Amino acid sequence: MALRIGDTAPDFTAATSEGTINFHEWGAGSWVVLYSHPADFTPVCTTELGRTAKLKEEFDKRGVKAIALSVDSVDDHKKWIDDINETQSTQVNFPIIADEDRKVSELYDMIHPNADASATVRSVFIIDPNHKIRATITYPASTGRNFGEILRVIDSLQLTDNYGVATPVDWVDGEDCVIVPTISNEDAKQRFPKGWKELRPYLRLTPQPNK
Ligand code: BEZ
Question: What is the set of active-site residues?
C-alpha cells in the first residue's frame, strides 16, 4: 500500500555514493528530504541534484538532510556526480542511494507501473525527526521539481510544529499565517502576542510568529 502522511517512513539499509547507510540512523534527529530520480545521466535529474547541492545552506538552516535515490549503481552515481559538479557548477554534498534491486523504490512506492515499468517517478518524501512522513509530492519524470516549493512546505510544517499556525494559500515566508482552529481565542492571546485579524471565527490571521 502507498505510504501516507503520518505513516512511519520505512527503515532500510542501502549502498549510497557516500557508503552504506541505515536510513533511520543516518537521519536521526534531522528532518529528511528523500527523493527519487528515474535514472543516472538524465538531464532533468542532473539539474535537480545540482540545485539540491546549492541549497545546502537553506537545508542546514532548517535542520534538513537531503538524500536522493536512483536505480543505478554506486559506480554510475560517482561518475554522474562528476558530471553534475561540472555542468551545474557545484559539489554534490549529500548521498545518492544506489537502488539497483529497487528495494527502496518498492518500499516507498516510487515505481508507478502505468507510467514506467522499471524507472521511478519523481517522488519527494518530507520526513520529520520522529521518522514520520509529513508530506509527499509526486511529479512525472518529465517535470523537474520546484525546490523552492519543497523548502516552503518544510517552513510551513516547522511553523505548525513550533507555533501552532497553518499557512494559507500561496503563503511565502514572512506573510501572515492562520491560527489553527483547535486554539481558542483565550489560548491565542498567550501564544500570539502580536494579535490577529478575525475575518471569521474560524479564519484568524496572525503575523508569522518567528519574524
Ligand atoms: C530526465 O531526468 O531528464 C528525464 C528522465 C526521464 C524522462 C524524461 C526526462
Answer: 45
